């Protein structure tokens, strides 16, 4: 496959994501102390994602509001130009709105956040981006508490914890960029549709790309990014740093429609 410049992700955006990763780690540390519950394997149906099945989660309005505020303040330090939109967004986050954001972020409802941005004259990408980044510490904590049995899950082409579509593999493990869950690759097959024929599921290399490949499936026209010999373990950063592979795959006709 042809070359696409890996620098499609700017240095500044990479630095922002690293900053938010640090913020999320601090928020997760706080949540770890506050939420003592365990996620018990016997209470989980292994054929459905974990999070929708939980009767109790660390997601409360005050905790999510704090995470939203921390995320907004972090983004403000990244760029003063964004301050007005961010401040306007922050003022709108009363309890009712925080709860709605939490629900819609869990659903990954981009249409809701697009409408919210239009109604309040905020940059289109802000609300969903902030809501999603603020949600991740909660998802990461649940994934961590579920790690002992994620290999037992069988939910098709989705993360066994948060249901994010599978798109990243490192060694013999799948990685979820959204909740940082890890689970073993159980067999040589398409992660999305289960196709096993080698003529349909295969690896393709990208010119001048030593540390990543694409695993594509001609049956369902989907793909997974495969990272090789890299020291970075944070799935969100790996996903960002391999964004150029998404462009390549989509240009070649792979990816969900």
UniProtKB/TrEMBL annotation:
Coiled coil: none annotated. The gene is fdhE. Residues 190-254 form the FdhE C-terminal domain. The keyword Cytoplasm applies. Keywords: Cytoplasm. It comes from Alteribacter keqinensis. This is Formate dehydrogenase accessory protein FdhE. GO terms for cellular component: cytosol. GO terms for molecular function: ferric iron binding. GO terms for biological process: protein maturation. Pfam families: FdhE_C (PF24860).
């Amino acid at each position: 496959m042809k070359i696409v410049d890996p620098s499609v992700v700017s240095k500044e955006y990479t630095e922002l994501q690293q900053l938010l990763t640090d913020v999320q780690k601090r928020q997760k540390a706080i949540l770890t102390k506050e939420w003592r519950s365990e996620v018990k394997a016997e209470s989980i149906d292994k054929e459905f994602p974990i999070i929708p099945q939980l009767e109790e989660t660390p997601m409360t309005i005050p905790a999510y509001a704090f995470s939203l505020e921390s995320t907004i303040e972090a983004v403000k330090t990244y760029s003063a130009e964004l301050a007005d939109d961010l401040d306007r967004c922050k003022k709108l986050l009363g309890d009712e709105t925080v709860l709605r954001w939490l629900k819609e972020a869990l659903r990954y409802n981009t249409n809701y956040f697009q409408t919210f941005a239009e109604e309040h004259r905020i940059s289109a990408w802000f609300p969903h981006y902030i809501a999603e980044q603020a949600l991740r510490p909660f998802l990461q904590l649940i994934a961590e508490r579920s790690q002992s049995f994620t290999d037992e899950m069988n939910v098709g082409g989705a993360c066994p914890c948060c249901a994010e579509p599978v798109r990243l593999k490192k060694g013999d493990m799948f990685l979820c960029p959204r909740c940082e869950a890890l689970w073993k690759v159980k067999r040589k097959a398409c992660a999305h549709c289960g196709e096993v024929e080698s003529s349909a599921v295969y690896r393709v290399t990208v010119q001048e790309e030593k540390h990543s490949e694409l695993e594509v499936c001609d049956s369902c026209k989907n793909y997974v990014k495969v990272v090789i010999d890299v020291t970075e373990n944070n799935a969100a950063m790996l996903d960002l740093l391999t964004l150029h592979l998404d462009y390549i795959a989509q240009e070649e006709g792979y990816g969900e429609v």
